[in-house]
Amino acid sequence: MRADQEKLEQLAAASKPSVMAIGIGGAGCNIISWVKQEGVAGGRLISVNTDANHLSISEADRRILIGEKTCKGLGCGGYPKVGEQAMNESIKEVFTEVENSNILFIVAGLGGGTGTGGIVELARQLHKKFENDPVPRLVVGVATLPFQIETARMGAAKAAITQLKQYCDTVVIIDNDRLNHLAGNLPFQEALGVANTTIGKFVKGVTETITSASLINLDYADLRAIMHDAGLASIGIGQGKDEGKVEHAVERALNERLLDVEDITKARGVLIHISGGEDMTLEEVHRGGELIKRYMPPKSKVIWGAKVDPNLKGRANVMVVITGVDSAFLKTQKKKLGRFKLPW
Ligand SMILES: Nc1nc2c(ncn2[C@@H]2O[C@H](COP(=O)(O)OP(=O)(O)OP(=O)(O)O)[C@@H](O)[C@H]2O)c(=O)[nH]1
Ligand SMILES: [Mg+2]
């Protein structure tokens, strides 16, 4: 009887997913600050850093200074090993926050010390902690690749991704260079701003698609079907306006992917999130979804959600998350910025 009750309670908890996003290191905290400023319905935001100064200007629901003994609040100076130690030192404090979350986004810019070492160590510890947990959880790593000019940081980033793949359900990789290229080669600070906004939108978009009522709802099971044990993922974003806005936005999102996917025909699934003004029709949304279905390999799972946003009159925004892909960068460490052509 008691066991039944416990089980029901666990299942009830799982059917109302709670989402948490944890930013680690400078870039991770900047991204969380962006989401905090924008607001996110149904998600809790945590920032962790070894750098007390940076943490003090970060915005989050909770800020945790990690590795106080190891780093004395001064950062890791670019050493991932130190970031790993710092996370390990403070893991109990971080764990007090994650207990009730079903979906965890762990977010960092790869290439420095705190983010690189910290995200891998956190992923490893979460994997161990949740391994035999009766409540299904989803741990999604979200990481940026260093800019091309940061050559010395590429090796550490690549090593971190290899490990993240082992410990996370999905690792969404955003190539800072590719994003900058798409945004029109901006000055460094502005490029970072675009990166933070894009990644922030991804976290906010996925969270709100499953926590708040939408035109077409996605639930936790949908998300799990696409993201559980799914390896690497690439996201793409696109905007469209007026006649055919959803279709145009879909096409752009498929073209403007933020990671060089090696072979799209091997993709495991795709999640599409469409938002548009009150003028957006269900038919338009379905056409957008069908377009992506036609484009993806026949066996891949395609799920979509849609939301009306009154601020988007006459416009549509589309985000696609393609999971189970390979990246040329990981094999060769060279980045490709080539365009992808639609097959029609
Ligand atoms: N998207 C994005 N990337 C950033 C930002 N700041 C830095 N980066 C990238 O992220 C990498 C890591 O930088 P940080 O996050 O500042 O480093 P950290 O993890 O704090 O590491 P330490 O300062 O060495 O402890 C850099 O090499 C950049 O490529 C940011 O605000 N947004
Ligand atoms: Mg730092």
Structural notes for this entry:
The protein is an alpha/beta fold and 344 residues long. The protein contains 14 helices and ten strands. A ten-stranded mixed sheet has the order 3-2-1-4-5-6-7-10-8-9, with helices on both faces. Helix 7 links the parallel strand 4 and strand 5. Helix 5 packs across helix 7, helix 9 crosses helix 10 and helix 12 runs parallel beside helix 13. The N and C termini lie far apart (59 Å). The C terminus is likely disordered.
Computed CA radius of gyration, to the nearest angstrom: 19 Å
Shape: globular
In this entry the ligands are: guanosine-5'-triphosphate, magnesium ion
Assembly status: single chain
- For the biggest β-sheet, the strand order reads 3-2-1-4-5-6-7-10-8-9
Helical percent range? Answer: 40-55%
Q: What are the low-pLDDT stretches, counting only 5+ consecutive residues below 50?
A: 336-344
- Strand pairing plus helix content: what structural class? alpha/beta
Number of helices: 14
Care to count the β-strands?
10
Q: CATH fold name of the largest domain, please?
A: Rossmann fold
Tell me the name of the CATH homologous superfamily of the largest domain: Tubulin/FtsZ, GTPase domain
Distance between the first and last residues' Cα: 59 Å
List the secondary-structure elements in sequence, H or E. HEHEHEHHHEHEHEHHHEHEHEEH
